[in-house]
Task: structure prediction
Amino acid sequence: MAALLVFAGGAGAAAQWTDEHPLIVVHSAQTPPMSFIGFDGEKKGLIVDYWRLWSRVNRVPVKLVLVDWPESLRMVLAGEADVHGGLFLSGERKRFLDFAPPYFELDAALVVRADLNIRSLAGLGDHAVGVLDHGYSASFVQARFPGLKRREYPTAAALISGAVAGEVDAMILERVTLVHLLGEMGKLGDFRMLDVLYTRSVHPAVAKGNAAVLELVERGMRAIPAKELERAFRRWTIPNGSGPSWLIALLGMGIAIAAGLLGFLLFQGRMRG
Result:
């Protein structure tokens, strides 16, 4: 199995990966703007661009695989993928994964339907909250609010579609993904954010004990020049005086998507009139 291969460390490690046997990096297919399949069928997103940069700088062929979130974890554990492209570190996950250093941060928001008089997660009562299956949000709710009703979804898109359809009245998800997907659907106004529940670093990870691949990943991360990293992420972010501002930029992108959709609908209405 690829994730359990053992080879010599140092510079020779990179030579073990070829076009015929690339390093397989897996992530979610439906968590824009981090990683997703575009309308043209191409893999896109901040995490996708990061690993393409990592591959180019380190001259290590990388095959990016985007699947449903639970499947991405299963593939790493089963040895069908060498590296998870990026996820939150937790005590539970440390039992079966080894983590490289982080390369950016995300925060997760609690949003509820705008027409509900709910002021906190504890105040949800009988209302169900949607979380990502095998996601950090599911373990967060279980640990902090075990009595809450929750419904787990295999993808962020399925979670948000379920909330829009009324299957759940609240959601916990990375804020940038919430804004992006709700903006695409023109549903930003149907929900309101109650709180940012947590901010976590995003780390690459490998199957527990796979020290050779972990060392390769970490060495490759250190080799990426800061300017190259900023340039690669610039399409998903807007730099400020202290460097990339991930959150503000990605929120702005989601709002711009929503504004564009609204403008398009208004234009269609005028054309019909």
